[in-house]
Amino acid sequence: MLTRPALVLALVAMPACAPASATEPSPAPFAALQCNDCHAIPGVATPPRTESCSGCHAWVRTVAANPAARQAAMTVFPKWERYERNVKTYFAVPDLAVAAARLDPAWVRSYLEDPYDTRPAMPETMVRLGADAASIESIVAWFTVRRRAVPASPAPDPANIAAGAKLFAERGCTACHAFGGAFPGPGIPAAPDLQHARDKMTDDALVAWIQAPSAFGSTTMPDLGLTLPEAVAVRDYLVLADPRPRPSLATVASSVAPRSPVAEPRWEDVESHVFGTICVHCHMDPAQNEGRAGPGNAGGFGWPATGLELQTYASVRANGPAILAALHRREGEAARDYVQPGEAPAHVVRPEKPGMPLGLPPIQAADIAMVELWYARGAPE
Predict the structure, then answer these.
(1) How many CA atoms lie within 13 A of 300 on its CB side?
(2) For 221-259, how does the pLDDT look when each residue is reduced to its tens digit (9 = 90+)?
(3) Domains of the chain (ranges plus CATH)?
(4) How many helices (H) and strands (E) does the chain have?
(5) Tens-digit pLDDT profile for residues 152-175
(6) How far apart are CA 178 and CA 189, in angstroms?
(7) How many CA atoms lie within 13 A of 263 on its CB side?
(8) Which terminus of the chain, N or C, has less C-beta within 10 A?
């Protein structure tokens, strides 16, 4: 059995990923599906800030923290203060090089086909991609060749569960992670609920990751100084203990702030709290955005163009049935795409088209009702 120093040295000596070669799968599907709008991906160019979800949000936060830059931005963007209020997501996005080094490619395939919420403290989730089977297989192949080789570890043993549970609590794992209903967290946004660890990683990879996460690449997961037997015990706790997750109740937090009911909503009400807060991020009016239409309008993430911009009164008024249908589809997907701490993602029948907003919690039922009332009243300005 390797001692801890020997194991760490062995891991560090291994290549971070398979070297690029003519036979390495092309990363082209990542760009085609706009995965690089949020993720850092080796071999795939980072899009300019104006085309990047995470890049644009990081820019807003940086400008907001600089008084001079903020003042300048407010003269250029009349609704700048709204941007500051709304930009709260896509700051903690996994680096796919580190993800590929540790994740089981079989799980990656199933996740791409039907993503689910693995981080209960994070409001955003993996967007549902409109990817065909060939694109998914190409991405899985890319993950496969970049998977880190790890030493074999002892098979999971129920006798280790108690010791692993003690270490899990004493070493501060619960400060960051949830573990189903056993430790519902919510922990910190970037830390996944570890009830999913047994599916996402192989037994051997879990031991290596727990003992020396930094050997897999740059990560916020700390090296806790565990011995090999301790890492094995924590692994056995995570893969064998019952995390006691509750069924998803689909009681989701909203992606927008609550507001008092509006008896007679006007365009200003629905625009300021729904369309201008969420929808316009993807459904832009090209005339107001230097020709950019956004992925929701021009097509993106594998989905075809809708030709639907939600930045102007005329377009929002004219497309009521399509808009309301998309908002309600998101409610149906919520039990899988957005779960509360301690819950397990529900299995849902996916509609042919994704619900909106893509990758974010549903808009509150009261606000959808306000939009419905606005349309019923004739969409008054």
Answers:
(1) 24
(2) 999 999 999 999 999 999 999 999 988 776 655 545 555
(3) 4-10+153-244 (1.10.760.10), 17-145 (no CATH), 267-376 (no CATH)
(4) 17, 2
(5) 999 999 999 999 999 999 999 999
(6) 10
(7) 0
(8) C
